[in-house]
């Protein structure tokens, strides 16, 4: 096991890199969990304190609308130590080129081949005005520690 904050710096990367590009005033907060499998094969999430290569990590990004109108976008660069797996929302778009282009993973190509989850460098979600008007929400995505 490796210490969560020291070896991977995931905590700092997730917390500081989640940004809202705002036509509306938005605050974000994130929490990182690691999935553990118990001897009876049940699964549970616990706060990520130590991680090892192969651990499945779930990041929950919470957003809070502080004012303004319309929708907004939340963008999260993935640390190099994390391979994207999937998002809990079908509203996400991903980038495989450092945030220059965006789309659904199945529609992206990189270096002449179809992009795969391990190619993802950034994840973003477009929060529509109707959902944003509720004032708060959560988005989650999973990855595997490299």
Automatic annotation (TrEMBL):
Signal peptide, first to last residue: 1-20
Keyword set, alphabetical order: Signal
Name recorded for this polypeptide: Uncharacterized protein
């Amino acid at each position: 096991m490796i210490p969560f904050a020291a070896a991977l710096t995931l905590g700092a990367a997730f917390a500081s890199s989640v940004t809202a590009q705002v036509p509306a005033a938005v605050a974000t907060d994130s929490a990182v969990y690691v999935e553990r499998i118990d001897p009876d094969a049940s699964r549970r999430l616990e706060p990520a304190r130590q991680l090892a290569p192969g651990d499945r990590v779930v990041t929950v990004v919470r957003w809070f609308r502080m004012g303004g109108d319309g929708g907004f976008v939340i963008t999260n660069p993935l640390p190099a130590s994390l391979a994207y797996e999937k998002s809990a929302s079908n509203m996400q778009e991903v980038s495989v080129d450092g945030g220059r282009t965006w789309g659904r993973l199945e529609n992206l190509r990189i270096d002449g081949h179809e992009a795969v989850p391990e190619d993802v460098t950034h994840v973003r979600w477009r929060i529509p005005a109707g959902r944003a008007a509720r004032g708060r929400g959560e988005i989650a995505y999973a990855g595997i520690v490299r």
